[in-house]
Specification:
The complex is a heterodimer of chains A (about 280) and B (about 350).
Chain A lengths: L1 E6 L1 E3 L5 E2 L6 E2 L5 E3 L1 H17 L2 E7 L5 H10 L3 E5 L9 H18 L4 E4 L11 H9 L2 E13 L4 E8 L2 E8 L2 E5 L11 H9 L3 E3 L1 H4 L13 E7 L9 E2 L7 H15 L1 H12 L3
Chain B lengths: L23 E5 L1 E2 L2 E2 L1 H17 L3 E7 L3 H12 L4 E6 L8 H15 L3 E5 L2 H13 L4 E5 L1 E5 L4 E8 L4 E7 L5 E5 L16 E5 L11 E7 L13 E5 L9 H11 L2 E4 L1 H5 L20 E5 L5 H7 L4 E6 L12 E4 L2 H22 L1
Parallel strand pairs in B: 1-4, 1-6, 4-5, 5-12, 6-11, 7-11, 14-15, 14-16, 16-17, 17-18
Antiparallel strand pairs in B: 2-3, 8-9, 9-10
Classes of the chains: A alpha/beta (about 280), B alpha/beta (about 350).
Chain lengths: ~280, ~350
Amino acid sequence: MHIVVCIKQVPDSAQIRIHPVTNTIMRQGVPAIINPFDLFSLEEALRIKDKVGARVTVLTMGPPMAETSLRKALSLGADDAVLLTDRKFAGSDTLATSYALTSAIKKLSEEEQVDLVFCGKQTVDGDTAQVGPGIATRLGFQQLTYITKIESIDQGAREIVVHRRSEGGVQVLKTALPCMITMLEGTNTIRFGKMDDMFRAARYGLKTWNKDTTGAEETKVGLKGSPTVVSKVFVPKPRAQKATMVEAETPTAEAQAAAAVDAIFGAQPKLADELLARAAAGL
Amino acid sequence: MSEPSKPQGRKFQLPEHLKEYKGIWVIVEQERGSVHSVSWELVGEARKLADKLGVEVGAVVLGADSPELNAICGDAFTYGADVVYKVTDPVLADYRTDPYTRVMTDVVNTYKPEIVLLGATTLGRDLAGAIATTLATGLTADCTELDIYMDNRSLAATRPTFGGTLLCTIQTLAYRPQMATVRPRVMSMPDRDDSRTGRVVEVFPNLRETDVITKVLSFIADREQTEAQLAFADIIVAAGKGLGKPENLKLVFDLAKVLGGEVGVTRPLVQAGWTGFDRQVGQTGKTVRPKLYIAAGISGAIQHRVGMEKSDLILAINTDPNAPIFDFAHLGLVGDALTILPALTDAFGKRLSVNRLAG
């Protein structure tokens, strides 16, 4: 069983600040982390390895510094790591990114057939949730997104049963390997690495591949291979008006609350009517 | 509104053969006979965009043929569609990526819409990513605003990025269709017009179940009230770090109960384990659009703001008069949420019970 886990190194979005004058992102000093949603997928891959045995290869596309994230994944228990890095990939949108990653997964498959690809549900910087489906479609793998639980894997029959979150409930799906899975957040608890894995990760000679290594076509990656174009980046406009402050004659909580209720009912008479009607009906 | 649509240094011309792509489509999301409201919100939005372009609105309804499906087709007209593409096959009864993608790819290639919109739901995001890949076209995820740049008649899709700290407008200039998913509750629900009707184009894809690898073994429906139904609540009382400790969440639940509303929280509270992810409002949680949003002890970080700023009326309670939430709330109250919340519960309770006695 060969599992590939695609991860992305992202800036910790909780720590990004906007420059007040120039309105640009201030990235200085913002730590780079593994996309948090990817960790749930990596953990699930490692659990499969623990349970039924598997080789887990972790793959990322990004600048050379993304190596740090691969070493982190190795320290958690991944067996092998591939850094896909090339200036020609710069500016890739999700369609081009999924193409580039697919070219690397195909190359990995030549070494040992890939049975499962895990991706994060989405990234915290781009938030698109499109790269996983893009990879599955390109590989012709079954696509299983928003998975809450892997119920069983039968290696002999090459079958997998999963629970998939949908809007109105949970679908229980049975499908065949190979497939692409994205795990929903909070579905498992991410482990701490073992000491010997940490030592191994620090010394590990990970693979560094570029466009030519994987045979990706130049017209399908980078800006050239990206149908979408960012035409404008801007900071959300503040509302023209600030909040009207609720003032009470006496600064007690009771007086302030009464004034707030007046203000709400005054601003939203229809809502007030609905609330009163509901109360009258005893709801 | 016309904005510069050519990024510096790059030229994008729509190839001649793609110019025949016309009309705006919404893929109507139905599961087990019920439609996700985001689909109708999108039909309403598509109507506005189509009127700008002078083209038709198409609603694509996929599923197994049934009276419920026919009713959904009728509803699509009342919300603003001109034409319904009714795609029926027993294999489409339950959502599965593979057959839905195959069918949609064929239908798009046959009828050539210039814009295809889907809800940014579990189904919509799963399907959109797959279709955009088979069609090798651009897809913009999770949009909060759509517009047409009239100089080249292209779709301008605006979405939050970097956790909501920035917005960016994305275009697909040289490929068709232009695709986008849109968050639920961001666009307003259109009014129904029951007199509206239109053409139905029936499509029979002739699928075979044996060709579909993924099987649905069962469906476990969410039992009502086990999870917060935040996205559809009319009233939300929300709590932030200002509440101090988890026990104080009770104050928020008390007020929500009196108002018949739901409780929402900010991301830090979920991360600290005060409550489940299903109550998180914001960029990585739910987008809400209630009639009344009471924000207690919430500073108003951008990640939270993008999830709730479209609320009809926002009352913010915060001890800090300079908290950013007062910049976009409609009503502000400077005070300690821990004392104001019980007082509000009381005040609303009295106001509503007085009426009950009078009635």
